[in-house]
Automatic annotation (TrEMBL):
It comes from Halodesulfovibrio aestuarii. Gene3D superfamilies: Vaccinia Virus protein VP39 (3.40.50.150). This is Uncharacterized protein. InterPro entries: SAM-dependent_MTases_sf (IPR029063).
Length: 189
């Protein structure tokens, strides 16, 4: 089971990186903040196509969220970046791992520091043909990452990626599906 999961994740990751680099180019972003990266694949691919790339990796994001809990609950800014200091804020698979209210606040922070954001994460099926990939993603989250299964269920209940983006009052510019619709890349502003 682990070998199959690893193989599928590498395929999904390669496809995600390719589409993300394309969307960053489409947005003409030169200064990018990458939040939640876990593998370095995305930062490596983006380093050649942008002038300034700052990375807040998966572990650093969780540390920041714990330290900034009071600011987040009060709806105050918690990232150290100034308003408009980036062209694009990219959140890679970080929204489904936190409470929906925190995910919404992360998107709002992205919109504060950049005019556009690229959100990459698991999504709800929009058509019946996409249901199998959504189920597979859910099963993987349930069994491989038991620590945040309850949070993932809340993420799904609020509408997953589209729900979080809507709650943060963003407008959708581009919507790309990967792996049968279980994963989406949303370019929002």
């Amino acid at each position: 089971m682990n070998a199959i999961t690893t193989f599928l994740w590498k395929k999904i990751l390669a496809s995600t990186v390719e589409q993300a680099v394309r969307l960053v180019g489409k947005a003409r972003a030169r200064r990018v903040l990458l939040i939640g990266e876990n593998t370095n694949a995305l930062s490596h691919a983006l380093s050649d196509s942008v002038e300034q790339l700052e990375v807040l990796n998966h572990n650093a994001l969780h540390t920041l969220l714990v330290r900034s809990q009071k600011k987040i609950q009060a709806g105050r800014p918690f990232l150290d970046a100034k308003d408009g200091s980036f062209d694009l804020c990219l959140v890679s698979f970080g929204l489904h791992q936190v409470e929906p209210e925190v995910a919404e606040q992360i998107v709002r922070e992205c919109m504060r520091i950049a005019p556009t954001a690229l959100l990459i994460d698991f999504a709800l099926a929009e058509r019946n043909i996409e249901l199998p990939s959504q189920y597979i993603c859910s099963i993987a989250e349930q069994f491989l990452h038991r620590g945040h299964w309850d949070i993932y269920k809340k993420y799904i209940r609020v509408g997953a990626l589209h729900g979080i983006a809507h709650r943060a009052q963003t407008s959708e510019f581009s919507n790309i599906t990967i792996w049968g619709g279980g994963i989406r890349l949303l370019l929002v502003g």
